[in-house]
Design brief:
391 residues, alpha/beta, TIM Barrel, 16 helices, 13 strands
Length: 391
């Protein structure tokens, strides 16, 4: 983190800082989410459904009854109802958008080298905390013509957060991205693919489109397994072969695949994946490009140029017969059995227990109350520790 960022945080007297803990592979990554009181006032909440905050439940349930008690128990099954605005795949045949989540990381430069070599542009759904850590990597990606989208600041289960907390996740990420590349994204990918109508309403109020996916090699879950290369590539092979990916809520003929630039084992497959897709006459492009969106950045913040080539717009989405099941980005249930690894950086295992708060001090104080109740003394203690450890 740059000293200017520290000073900006410390200098904002009224800023409230919350933290959430993202479990890392090998060690916990404590992420402090900056918060400013004015952020919520900037968002028009009039059209945001007044739905209750949902506790982090047990994930996906079979045949849930989503009008009663199953709502909370079957967290993902009942919360993630696809709607016509959600983006799952590319709208035209023979289009494929590679997307990479949770970065940037210290592997992303290697991935950018691979993409440069193949002359492929991709979409990066970046975490604000990681943008603060590697702003130069985001700049390189943006300058090269890749598409930058938001993936929140600390990778929480958004449905479990209050409106204020969700807004802070997005606004803090916006600031980090604007500081790095000068523009504000207009696409966001909710962590775990989790977004109910309240979350979606908030995203729309903040100018975001919900970017999901319809091909998922579950690299987060198999990156350490034997034959990981074959297993990751199998997802692409099956999709090319016309198999149902189970994620194609809108029956899109083109694909948006999900990988994570946190796993070198997944990145290593990218050249072979590109060859495979091109061998099947697929055109590789960013998600924004396949959606015909030449300016995937919000216009209220400086330069709105995207670096993305303009393509004919064809974003009609067949909203008929939308299935209930949605994502398979690392779910709580999947992550529970995911092996831990010790990889260079603090990597994200996207199963953040946002109910607990860990201050990023060496003592790693754990507080059991909600982030909103952090007192002034704790805040001061945190800021001092942050300044001393980060500068
Ligand atoms: Zn993620």
């Amino acid at each position: 983190m740059r000293s200017s960022n520290i000073l900006a945080i410390v200098g904002s007297i009224l800023a409230i800082t919350t933290t959430s803990t993202v479990l890392a592979q090998g060690e916990a990554e404590n992420i402090a989410v900056p918060r400013k009181p004015e952020w919520t006032a900037q968002v028009n909440l009039a059209a945001v459904p007044n739905l209750p905050v949902r506790p982090i439940g047990s994930g996906v349930c079979e045949n849930p009854v989503c009008d009663g008690t199953d709502n909370d128990r079957c967290f993902e099954s009942c919360g993630n109802k696809p709607n016509s605005d959600d983006i799952y795949g590319c709208p035209k045949p023979k289009q494929w958008a590679l997307t990479f989540d949770d970065g940037p990381s210290n592997y992303t430069a290697e991935l950018l080298d691979m993409l440069d070599q193949a002359n492929v542009k991709a979409t990066f759904c970046v975490m604000g905390a990681h943008v603060r850590k590697y702003p130069e990597i985001v700049k390189r990606a943006y300058d090269a013509g890749h598409h930058i989208a938001s993936h929140t600041y600390s990778h929480p289960h958004l449905m479990s957060l209050s409106n204020d907390e969700i807004i802070a996740e997005m606004k803090a990420t916006e600031e980090a991205i604007v500081d790095a590349i000068g523009v504000k994204p207009s696409y966001m990918r909710p962590p775990f693919g989790e977004a109910d109508d309240r979350v979606k309403g908030l995203m729309k109020a903040m100018g975001y489109k919900i970017l999901l996916w319809n091909a998922d090699p579950t690299d987060y879950n198999i990156y350490k397994e034997a034959n990981v290369a074959a297993k990751i590539k199998a997802t692409f092979v099956h999709a090319l072969g016309g198999d149902d990916t189970g994620l194609n809520a809108h029956e899109d003929p083109g694909f948006i695949s999900l990988q994570h630039d946190l796993y070198t084992q997944s990145i290593d497959q990218v050249p072979a994946i590109i060859s495979l897709l091109r061998g099947s006459q697929y055109q590789l492009m960013t998600a924004a490009e396949c959606l015909g969106d030449a300016s995937p950045y919000q216009k209220d913040h400086g330069n709105s140029d995207s670096g993305a080539a303009a393509l004919p717009s064809d974003t009609n989405i067949n909203a008929a017969s939308l299935p209930q099941a949605t994502s398979s980005e690392p779910s709580a249930s999947a992550q529970a059995s995911s092996p831990q690894a010790s990889v260079g950086i603090a990597e994200v295992t996207p199963n953040a227990p946002v109910a607990s708060v860990h201050l990023p001090t060496s003592a790693a104080i754990s507080l059991s109350f909600t982030p909103f109740t952090i007192g002034a003394s704790c805040l001061l203690s945190f800021l001092l520790s942050l300044s001393s450890t980060m500068l």
